[in-house]
Amino acid sequence: MFQLIKADPPADRVRRITFVPFLADGRCVLIEDPGGPALPAGEVQDGEDYLLDTVLRVPLQTAGFRYQRFHPFGLDRDHLYAWIEGRPYTGSGPHRSAMLSFGPAEEAAERLRAHGEPVLAAAVRAAAESYRGLDEQAFYADNRRTLETAYLRGTTPQQGSGFGGGELDWQKARRHITEGIAGDGTFLDVGCANGLLMESVAAWCAERDLAVEPYGVDISAALTDLARRRLPRWADRIWTGNAVDWRPPAGLCFDYVHILLDSVPRARRADLVRHHLKHTVQPATGRLLVSDYAADPAVGHPAAVETLRSLGFRCVGQTSGGTLPGRPSNPTAWITADPAP
Length: 341
Description:
By secondary structure, the protein is of the alpha/beta class.
């Protein structure tokens, strides 16, 4: 039986990983193989970094599942147990078209136990407790680890901004955000990574004869350092800070501010929106642009506009959403005044 852990084990200690997948709405995911329910699991291959490579490869190859968040919770010698949050993969990359079921973790655990898998059943129960009880600081530490390890290894500007496709796909997936920009002004990207969205928004708006000055902030100092090296002309307008409470220097406010809902725990999303409406968006005339890149209503993960409405915010409008084949359209919603729920 595995032992519960609170930190990533050393890379040289992990040779196999079993994953407990969750959808964003908290449902547990099982593989419905002909032989019975199962969890995605696999070996760490030679030359792989388990935090980067194995965590991505195994769920795709065994379950057709693409993770967004990863957290280890158990270890049995060289066998790691971890939960992941994400959704079934619909892209064109290598993956298995597996039959999946979704339901409460307690039901998944009972099905595994009845199938003669008591260790996997215990893993699901432990994963659910860890997943539901993850504290806020652990959430941000997980985000920082995932972002830094993956993005810094990227060999293209898109990979350094957390995007798997090339330049054309990047435009198809992100250009719609500029539909929320109606005139000249300043643009703050909260969660700017290597600065590619800052750079792209300025260029895309210029094609519409709009003069947009970009700024950025990110939770990772390593990524903001990278952004400053990539964009030296804007180095003095890229800062390090947590989206949930960062304030611009010298009382700056911006005409357009872009935030990501998944940059904070689900329970803090309303706080995130209120914070930026109060402290970063230009009073009266500014616009807060809100995205959720992982949204997929088909698996219970609503688009940004629906999440905002459920939190009591009044959205003024939303963009058309991305146009990548095989991926759901994820419109960016925006809020101007009357922010309080």
